[in-house]
Amino acid sequence: MFENKNTTPLSEIGEFGLIDHLTKNFPVIHPSTLKGVGDDAAVLNLNEGQSVVTTDLLIEGVHFDLSYVPLKHLGYKSVMVNLSDVYAMNAHPTQITVSLAVSNRFPLEALEELYSGIALACKNYKVDLVGGDTSSSSTGLIISITAVGQAEEKKITYRSGAKANDLLVVSGDLGGAYMGLQVLEREKEVFKVSPNNQPDLALYSYCVERQLKPEARKDIIELLEEVEIVPNAMIDISDGLSSEVFHLSKASGVGCDIYEEKLPADPQTSSTAEEFKINSSTALLNGGEDYELLMAIKTEDYDKIKGHPLLTPIGHFTDQKEVCNLITGLRQSIPLQAQGWKNFNKDESA
Amino acid sequence: MFENKNTTPLSEIGEFGLIDHLTKNFPVIHPSTLKGVGDDAAVLNLNEGQSVVTTDLLIEGVHFDLSYVPLKHLGYKSVMVNLSDVYAMNAHPTQITVSLAVSNRFPLEALEELYSGIALACKNYKVDLVGGDTSSSSTGLIISITAVGQAEEKKITYRSGAKANDLLVVSGDLGGAYMGLQVLEREKEVFKVSPNNQPDLALYSYCVERQLKPEARKDIIELLEEVEIVPNAMIDISDGLSSEVFHLSKASGVGCDIYEEKLPADPQTSSTAEEFKINSSTALLNGGEDYELLMAIKTEDYDKIKGHPLLTPIGHFTDQKEVCNLITGLRQSIPLQAQGWKNFNKDESA
Predict the structure, then answer these.
(1) CATH no. for A159-335
(2) What is the pTM of this model?
(3) Does domain A10-155 have CATH number 3.30.1370.100?
């Protein structure tokens, strides 16, 4: 993607120069960041409340495809994936570290693009970049991000606190990122056949943006604070709703009934699913990467969120241990299938 | 390396089953670990003192070669690399996260081996495994580890605190890991020509162990506590002594004189260097991966460490900003060359 420009090969820069160059414009915002990039480790003052730590590894060809993912978006999304895990604990992210491994096919300018997305994410979500390194890779691009966050002890939400009769509530809408992926994969195939054909993605802008530039739900954590709700349990939806429902149910030792007709979808998600002849409910239940939050809310808290456009009750927990059902529009109860993104399936990992 | 055994393909297990399986025998030791593996993030109580966070990414074919590195050793060493960074801050490691990406060529048993090394490291160094995940990789093995540690505020040592006249002190001995690597690379070439020739590594056991199973210098941090020394500055030696001396000097705005004859070497390192026709000082100055600690000690603290077998003064800092000299056995002063491991050199990254 940088083939035709004047570019700077990484071999001209060297390891230490590179990380200095890429991180020089990152300001330190948080008072808890005592020392960021530039020593053997970052030094943090995490004396208030409790701390959460989460880490994710993103591999080219497995988690992203650079033939249609712009590097700036990739940098942004890589941070979102981690911040989403912090929000899922009902905590506020404060610091991240970013380690990269890159092959020589990437010039300096490509990494600058990637870091501009990381910088934008740090700015928008008020987190400090405090460490990481760069090294070479024999093949593609590998991004490893660790996020640190903080929360008051009484606010931290685990997966394991859901109780029978709690409402199952989801933020935003579902399936968009999955349909965006279908659109991008189709355009990639079209491009292979006719490289001069400019794709018109305007019809799919919402879904494509959900896939390429998701936002972690900082606003939902702030909303919960505002209405004084601490969920009994929470998880973020990275592998698809069904899969996450099973995680919550298993960790909490409860079951769950979900109402198909309640699943929130953007109209574009539904129309795109129709165009692709994909059952809309399948996209909503099993499409991954929406990075919405899924939570167990006490019934007495229902009035605080009733009718809120960002929070949709889609079912409730039951005392049927680990039994998860989908109640269809015709009031049939069928066992929910978790078709979350499974690694190591032979057809998925090249 | 597992070709001839009854093995379990990863595709039979799936992502969630795999991480559960690999981490099930990891006990939680630290009271600061409130929640380890199994939620969106680990939850830690880091209310005492300050926290340090460091992360490293290890890539097959770049940082390790599985043709001679046993997986158990690799797991152990991957943890050491990170703990060494924590000790270099004069802090105590408390938790780690481990993320893996693996191609299908690895059976379950290979990952169990890797994790047995990680488990041994956690046990020996009393750290808790609190998170991470596994995913597929299109080619080799990728290991990403993040370590968290804690220290009293007044004990944390940065790279930037060295002052003119401070002694430059190094722990243990140098160059062994580098010579071990030379031995292993030679045996690999021999094996290619005569696969039935069993290598006799007994003559090189010290160097090979320094390369394959390094230990992070927990004992040195404990020793410094015991003799009540807080170094003015500290760094761990991962890229070679010269390179780290430059880092300390640059960060502290001072210079440094190092005495060639003071550099500590194990006799086996010297004899192996001689056999390989490598200048012994070159191995000591530029060989990486020793994971020793290099520190700036106030002259008034000298008596506390004088003659200690684990700590060797090898020079002193000067007010010549960023001017680092090697004083040879013939009392010549020559500019030190930092030949640390540079990534992105075309001949190093395939």
Answers:
(1) 3.90.650.10
(2) 0.93
(3) no
Q: Given CB atoms, is B54 within the 8 Å cutoff of chain A?
A: yes
Chain A residue nearest residue B84, CA to CA: A40
Report ipTM (2 d.p.): 0.91
- Tell me the nearest-neighbour CA distance from B330 into chain A, angstroms: 33
Neighboring chain A residues of B46 at a CB cutoff of 8 Å: 44, 46-47, 50-51
The domain segmentation of chain B, as residue ranges, is 10-154, 159-335
Q: B232 CB near a chain A CB, below 8 Å?
A: no
Is-same-fold flag (B10-154; B159-335)?
no
Which residues of B are less than 8 Å from A99 in CB distance?
Answer: 55-57, 144
Q: Which residues does chain A have within 8 Å of residue B82's beta carbon, measured at their own beta carbons?
A: none
pLDDT in tens, A225-276: 999 999 999 999 999 999 999 999 999 999 999 999 999 999 999 999 999 9
Tell me, letter by letter, the H, E, C secondary structure of chain A. Answer: CCCCCCCCEHHHCCHHHHHHHHHCCCCCCCCCEEECCCCCCEEECCCCCEEEEEEEEEEECCCECCCCCCHHHHHHHHHHHHHHHHHCCCCEEEEEEEEEEECCCCEHHHHHHHHHHHHHHHHHHCCEEEECCEEECCCCCEEEEEEEEEECHHHCCCHHHCCCCCEEEEECCCCHHHHHHHHHHHHHHHHHHCCCCCCCCHHHHHHHHHHHCCCCCHHHHHHHHHCCCCCCEEEECCCCHHHHHHHHHHHHCCEEEEEHHHCCCCHHHHHHHHHCCCCHHHHHHHCCCCCCEEEEECHHHHHHHCCCCCEEEEEEEECCCCCEEEECCCCCEEECCCCCCCCCCCCCCC
User: In CATH, what is the architecture of B10-154?
Assistant: 2-Layer Sandwich (3.30)
Is B90 exposed, middle or buried (CB count within 10 Å of its CB: 0-12, 13-18, 19+)? buried
